[in-house]
Amino acid sequence: MFDVGFPELILVSVIALLVLGPERLPEALRTMGLWLGRLRRSFNTVKAEIEREIGMDEIRRQLHNEAVLADIKRIEDEVRATGEDAKRIDPQHGDAAARANPDPPEPHQPSRPEPDTSAADPSEPR
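and the corresponding structure tokens:
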């Protein structure tokens, strides 16, 4: 997190010794250690809660996707059953659409207008 090397630690220790004195320095270090421990625990608790929430969101999304897929499968089965019922009721016309148009017609291509060649050729002299 912080890039603190040995020389920086020595400098902070000397300044703390000069400011607090040798009598209050151990108590200040102990208090600072307690506060850092509490801060770490709080941070880890918040981090765990966020990870748990993210996991719940993923599970919620997965359940939603499974529900949507189940609905799609149910609708496909209903359509398939309806098609089979229609074929069973009227077997003559079950595949009427497929027999009526076995090959789709070619799309109509509009013809390009031919240029008028009866007009005078511009390269001929007048």
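(Above: one complete record from the training split.) The first helix runs from residue 6 to 89.
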